[in-house]
Each structure stands twice: as structure tokens, then as C-alpha cells.
Amino acid sequence: MTDKILVVDHLAASVAGQQVVEDVSFSVPATGITAVLGRNGVGKTSTLKGVLGLYQRTGEVTLAGERIDDLPTHKVVQRGVGYVPEDREVFSKLTVAENLRLAERKGAVTAERRQLVERLFPDLVERRDQMAGTLSGGQQQMVALARALVNDNRVLLVDEPTKGLAPLIVEQVTEALREASATVPILLVEQNLEVVRRLAGEAVVVAGGRVVHTGPAADLLADEALTQRLLGVHAETPDSRPDSRQVAP
Ligand SMILES: Nc1ncnc2c1ncn2[C@@H]1O[C@H](COP(=O)(O)OP(=O)(O)OP(=O)(O)O)[C@@H](O)[C@H]1O
Prior knowledge:
Number of domains: 1
Strand order of the largest sheet: 6-7-8-3-9-10
Shape: globular
CATH superfamily: P-loop containing nucleotide triphosphate hydrolases
Bound molecules: adenosine-5'-triphosphate
Distance between the termini: 40 Å
Radius of gyration: 17 Å
Order of helices and strands: EEEHEEHEHHHHEHEHEEHH
CATH class: Alpha Beta
CATH architecture: 3-Layer(aba) Sandwich
Structural class: alpha/beta
């Protein structure tokens, strides 16, 4: 029995003939939230896509002790890797309920998962018949999260869920992720360091397509010099405003 749900070993990924992940190794604990941090364009999203097989990759990826790097994306997903993409990718011409139904994997939806989604996102229950394209950005993010959470996954890969959202909605999404993380481990790409501070147990910092730091998120954020060097921002104080500390471009 391993305490790591996902192990990524010397992952390299390329797209359109360009190498976008050079050599990334890290592991995701079987509980809690692990944050992937780094400046813009360093390869955070590409790392998630490499794990999923959406980008051509080499290296080893192990899920609960089993290799998944030789599987096509749909099989990686079937094994229990949920994905919430950065741009949400809801089906805008379908209703909220239809978006959720399409995401349901045979045998992966349980009564507990449905209840969790309904508890976390009461607004979506009310809006179940509304076209997803007419929802606000925050509501669309909730649809994207709900689609991953309705299935009994072994790990979730969540890419910048608070990007572009108003502070109140950032708060709601943060709370939803916190509650969800009690039921499934999460690998979270996130630029808002206050959200990271509140959610993440571990942090993985990427620069130039490589991992340059791993360790407890709280230790990284408490180290002003290190945070400045790796992320280009000053470390936060507990009373810093949630929307004021983003990783520098
Ligand atoms: N489909 C693609 N075609 C061409 N280049 C790409 C593609 N996807 C990513 N890249 C390039 O790979 C590099 C890493 O991009 P990636 O989106 O993984 O970075 P990121 O760390 O997630 O950035 P951000 O924080 O801005 O979202 C960038 O230089 C980007 O331009």
C-alpha cells in the first residue's frame, strides 16, 4: 500500500513539435491537495496534459502503483483520473444537468458522489435546466468541478480553478475544493497564493519545464526569499488580501 496516489517520474511532453515539459518528477500524496506552482508559461498545464496523455509524452506515470503512461487519455480517465481544465470546457449549448450527465462514467457514479455535488453546488441544482453557456464564469467553473466530482475518481487534476473569478466566487470555489479534498486527493495548478496557503499540503514548483522545488506548501510560503526567487512574489502575510497576491508573469 503506497501513500502516493500518483507518481510522475522523468516526464517529458511535447505538442506541435515543441517540447513543453523537459523533465518533471514529483509525487502526489494519497490525501489532501498538492499545488503545482510556477510563473506563467513554465509548463504547469502541459504537465497535467502530459499525465493525462493529451500531449505526447515519455517517462513514467504511476497511478496507485500501476503504470498509466502507456495508456490513451480515455483509459487514463477510466482508471480514475478526473480532469478540470483551465478553460472549463463546458458544453455551452447543453443544460447544466446534461453537462453533468455526459460526464458520468459507467460504474463510477455513486449516491455519495451525487450528494456531494448537490451539497457543494446548490446553485447548480437550482439551475439544472439552464444552458451552461449562459452561466457566469464562476457558475461554469462549478459545472466543471461538479463533472469531475460526480465520478468516484482516485485523483483529480484541477487547472487554475479560480482564474478570472471575483473574490466572493474564489471563496466559494476554494471552500468547494477544500470539502472535495476530504474525499479525493487533488493536484491543483493555482496562481492565487492565498488559495494555495489555505488548501495545499504540499507544493511542487515548476520552472522551465522542470521541477525546481518540492516540499510543504506552508514552508515555501513562509520563506519570503524562496517564494520571491521561485515565483517572483513576496511571501504573503496571513492578513494579505486574497486577490492581491498572484504569481508574477
Ligand atoms: N498546444 C500548444 N502549442 C504550442 N505551444 C504550446 C502549447 N501548449 C503549451 N505550449 C507552450 O508550452 C509552454 C508551457 O505552457 P503551459 O500552458 O504548460 O504553461 P503554464 O505554466 O501552465 O502557464 P500559465 O500559468 O500561463 O497557464 C509555453 O511556452 C506554451 O506557449
